Structure formats: C-alpha cells, structure tokens
Amino acid sequence: MFIKKLVPSVFWILLLSFSFSIKETKAQAKRYKEEVFKEIDSITNITYGEAINIKGEKETLLLDIIMPKNDSVNKRPLVIFIHGGGFKSKSKNGIFSSMLCNSFARKGYVSATIDYRLGVEKSGIDSGKKVSTNGDYAEALYRAQHDGKAAIRFFRRYAKKYGIDDTQIFITGTSAGSKTCLAIAYMDDDEVPKEVNKKRWGTLEGNSGNDGFSSKVQGVMNNWGAMIDYSWIKKGDAPLYNTAGTEDKTVPYDSSFDYHGFKYGPYILYQHCRTLGIPTGWRPFYGAGHTLNNKKEKQDSCIQSMAAWLYTQLKFNNGKEELGVLKWEMEMARFESLNKAEKYYSYAIMFIVCAYISMRKNISDEIGFTKIIHRSYGGRNLIGKIEKRKESEFLFWSNFYTTAVLTISVSQKLKEA
Q1: Where does the pLDDT of residue 344 fall: very low under 50, low under 70, confident under 90, or very high at 90 and above?
Q2: Computed over its alpha carbons, how large is the radius of gyration of the chain?
Q3: Which site from 205, 302, 352, 400 is most exposed, i.e. has the minimal number of CB atoms within 10 Å?
Q4: Where in the chain is the domain with CATH 3.40.50.1820?
Q5: Strand extents, DSSP E, 137-258
Q6: SS3 for 352-414, per residue?
Q7: Range 33-313 has CATH code 3.40.50.720
Q8: What's 4's DSSP letter?
Q9: How confident is the model over 62-81, as pLDDT tens digits?
Q10: pTM to 2 decimal places
C-alpha cells in the first residue's frame, strides 16, 4: 500500500478527479453527463413571439438554438438560458450564455438563449427626480416571465422540428434572468405582486405568443438570482438548483438585503426547498461577488456543477429510489454516526468533505488504508475544523465538484497501527 512507502517530512499533493474513483476515470463518457460531442450547430435569431414593450411598441422576440452536430437522437432535453442585466440591458449574446449553451450542447442537450423585453419604468419621485420603484421592477419581471413562458411554449410547439423532448424542459439564467426563471416556475396568478398592472400587461401567461401550449418546466437552475417571495415555491414544485457568490453585493445570496424588492437569494431558496422535500442543490462560491466576479474559471466550474446536478434530474433517472441532492443527503445521513465519532487511531486519514461527496463509501479500498476518520463540514466551518487537527493527520478535502487535493503531511514514517 502506498502509505507504507511514505518517508519522514514528506509533503505529498495528489490531484484526484472529483469522482475520487479510478474506475470512473476509465469509464466511457456518458451523454448528458460529459461532453461527448466535439462539434455543435447553431440557428440564430429565430422569432419566437412578439409583445408590446414599455414604449408602447410591438417588439419582436428572438432566440438562438445550439445543439450537437450530427446527432442521431431526436428527443433531447432542452435547457433555456435567460440573460441578466437588471431588466435594463444585455442580450442573449453574452460570454456566460455562450459558455453555458455550448457546454450543454456538447453534452447532448439542445440549448437556447433568448432575448426578452427590457426596460424598467420610473413611476416614483425622489428629490424631485423620477425613479424606479419596487413596483416598476415587479412589472419588469412580469414582462420578462411572459416572454420566457412564450419561449417555452414555442419549443413545445416545435419540439419535433428541433428534436426536443417536451417533457424535459429546464430553464436557467443569471441575475435578472434567474429571477425571471424563478417567476416562470413558481409564481401563481394569485401571487402576482399587487403593484403589477394586469389590465395593462395581461394575465400570468401573457400575450407574447404560442398560445395553446404549456409553459411548465421540469427544473430551474438559479445563478445569483433572488425572489420577491420564497413562499411561491410549494411542495411538489419543480426541482431547483442554486449558486451564488457569498460576497455578492448586488443581489443577496441570503436575505441580508434586497435588490429592488428581490430579497430571498439562492441559499434561502435552497433551505426552503429542503424543508418542502423538493430536490435541490446549493453551490456557494466563498468570497466571490456578483457574476462570480466574471472569473472564467469560476463560471466554468459553476456550469459543470449545474450539469452534474441536472443529470440527476433527467427523466431516465425518475422512479429510482435516490435522486439528485436528496440522494446524497440520504447517504450523508448514513455517515452521521461516523461523523460524530471522537476516538480514532494515532495515525489515520481524515476524510473531510462538504456537499454531496460524503456519499463515498469505498474510500478505504481505493487508497489502500483502513483507518479512516469521516468528517462532513459545510463551507465556512471547514477551515476552522482543519486548523484544530494535528499535523500528523491526513486531511482529505473535496470542494463541491472541484478538483480534490489530497494533502499528506507526516513527521515520522507512517505504518499500520
């Protein structure tokens, strides 16, 4: 076993894949789980609807479709991306939207990115100047979710044409786009904010196009978006994945402030879903700000985490006993007694994890060492726990879906006790 070969004062760092399994690295790539297509195709500027904007003008609504090239499957899950920009700016053609849509298409999904009506009116007065009120932002959200619903209906209408499984439509976005996704999935007609002028803007489904088709979605992936009211999410609603930077000063990751009435951020929504038994997920980026500071490596890690979660929610997984995050929560519960154990050998490996990875049951077999200390800590609590441990202990830390680092520090030759 490799541990017997260690010598005094050696510092080893072994980079392992997030799966922690040699067998998995040798396995064939799986569609929807890994990138199995090298080439992708796109169709741009497809009209999916039209609607009246805040200028009173009829606006044409466009989307782009990205899909695997030379794909033989004709019923594929769809991921629709809705861009951010505070309901005022940006478009379907952004860096993050391209990264996300291209990555999902290479995994075998059909992906799409949409434009929607922008603009926030200014119905309030502050110091003699016109300003946007929370009600104005609620109406901007209302219009955006109208357009998002029309896009979903468009894809159900033309599912056969674009090779889409209309029973597997998922939505995601960033910031205002994620707020829109959350409203699409969870806001009911009797929950429309009272400030919204329904007489002017219409019913919850809107008038943006493709009437007669459902706008229901099978899951939401929320990237640094927040909700006006988390109680919109009810038992039995669509699964929800959440991610954000914990130093986001624009949109709250928790509920410590609000963005024009949007108060309940990703962490709050994750906890609410757990309470209701809704399959959910939470990927914090500690120390990161809004949009993860536009750091490509963080954003790419975010996308890969989303894809790993979404894979657990696909239809072919339905009916299995353990799904999504709830699957790993059950696995973690089985480790609870081990996690609380205080007695252990003088020379042992501490297996420290956060999030899902506690599910690993065969770590001792994989590394060839039997004396394992199991510890599961979430996020901020992790570092303090590590600092209190002895240098002679092994620290094995996996950060949620990132590269794992096995750090081994010894002051004398280790051997089996």
Answers
A1: low
A2: 24
A3: 205
A4: 33-313
A5: 164-174, 219-223, 240-245
A6: EECHHHHHCCCHHHHHCCCCEEEEECCCCHHHHHHHCCCCCCEEEEECCCCCEEEEEECCCCC
A7: no
A8: G
A9: 999 999 999 999 999 999 99
A10: 0.73
